Amino acid sequence: MPGSSSHTPSSGGGGRSGALADGIRLDMNRAPQRMEFGPHHPAVRGALALKLELDGERILEAEIEIGFGHRGVEAKAEALAWHRAIPYIDRLQSQSAMMAATAYVLAVEKLLGLEPPLRAAWLRTLGCELGRMADHLARLASLARVLGAEAPAAWALGARARIGALLEALTGSQAGQQYVRIGGVAGPLPPDWVAHLRGVGPAVLAALDDFDAVLGQNRIFVDRLRGRGVLNAQACLGYGISGPLLRAAGVAADLRRDEPYLVYDELAFDLPVGLVGDNLDRYRVCLEELRQSLALVNQCATRLQALGTGDHRLKDPALGSMREWSGDESLEERIRWGRAHVAGPSVPRGEAGARVESSNGELGFYLVSDGSATPRRVRCRAPSFFNAQVLAQILRGQTLGDVGPTLALANIEGAECDR
């Protein structure tokens, strides 16, 4: 692949030491400039602000500000019935809402000692991988747009729209799906869904190939990413970074393979890893993960077809499930079912946790129950919060033009930070 000589970022430190990367020295007699970046910007998902201290185009210091969209999701969930917190959990992620809901529900099911139907596990896996694809395509579109490549950005957004149509056909919504339930999922696989997937898959792969042919092989694009925003493996582990940023630094870590959940132990997929952890490695990891996720979606669809029709959810009114009435039931039975449906389950006293590999990294929930119908404690481990705190180190010593691509590839979700 064509490229240029590597750009080595500053190792951090005080910033105004008199020397930065590429042999550039600061004019110590010139006062640094200050600039506010955000909180709304094409490269930022949600609301995130940066306060930059500049020497010309070179970044001396960066201060990260979060909290612009704080909604108190954890506190809100603690005031609701266990099953009624799911719509709020969904909103932690804009494109891949099902991943957050899956982590929460897996923890609740541990407390309840429930084993959902096998079809529910396959449907959850299918939805999570579709959400990962939508998230990664949005990441690529943001990257192309901030670098002025409008046509490739449109290709990525077009592919995301195709994936969104699949998600909408499965769940009824492209964002905030509210599809995962305690004990299963909201609905089965639609009858014509697999045929729809078989038509969408090749089109998405073609869009990815075109995107990489135009940008990934472009000398200017490669030069804008190579050696920029470097975060090596040691720094990633020190900051608790996971997901694509960690894999781009050369660490083949993924909960889907290391600690399989749902049905990932029955699926075949590869883990792309980078070399040095710069923006170019992040781009390549993101592109390959899209191809791997599409392969996973196809495997899930094939298995669901083989399973045929059957239960996709445990039949229990306390889990919020619905039923069809024959007309022979008594009024008392209908009232009992309705009350249980509204109140939700009373979860046994205890604590449990569950985590999943979201599109940004390890996302987990720690839950504490006091035996009532509402959680005693809900704690979320959100990967974007960890990714945001390391931005200052990544950007220090870089140029102002590196901020947009770095933010796009970091893919920080404001709602995860401001939970």
General description of the model:
The chain has 419 residues and is mainly α. It has a domain at 73-229 and 259-355: Orthogonal Bundle (Cytochrome-c3 Hydrogenase, chain B), CATH 1.10.645. The chain has helices spanning 73-77, 86-90, 97-112, 118-146, 150-171, 193-216, 219-225, 233-239, 244-248, 255-258, 279-307, 331-343, 383-389, 391-395, 403-410, 414-417; strands spanning 33-37, 49-55, 58-65, 180-181, 184-185, 350-358, 361-369, 377-381. Strand 4 and strand 5 form a beta hairpin. Helix 4 (118-146) packs antiparallel against helix 5 and helix 6 (193-216) runs antiparallel to helix 11. The longest helix has 29 residues, at 118-146. It is globular. Mean pLDDT is 86; it is low at 1-26.
* Chain-averaged pLDDT: 86
By CATH, the architecture of the domain at 73-229 and 259-355 is named Orthogonal Bundle
Net shape: globular
Secondary structural class = mainly alpha
Task: Specify the number of helices.
Answer: 16
N/C terminus separation: 41 Å
The number of E-state strands comes to 8
> Strand count, sense and closure of the main sheet?
3 strands, antiparallel
Helix content: 40-55%
Order of adjacent strands in the largest pleated sheet: 1-2-3
- Beta percentage is 5-15%
Following the backbone from N to C, one meets helices and strands in this order, namely EEEHHHHHEEHHHHHHHEEEHHHH
CATH superfamily of the domain at 73-229 and 259-355: Cytochrome-c3 Hydrogenase, chain B
CATH level 1 class label of the domain at 73-229 and 259-355? Mainly Alpha
What radius of gyration results from the CA coordinates?
A: 23 Å
- Poorly predicted ranges: 1-26
Task: Using the coordinates shown, work out and report the CATH topology of the domain at 73-229 and 259-355.
Answer: Cytochrome-c3 Hydrogenase, chain B
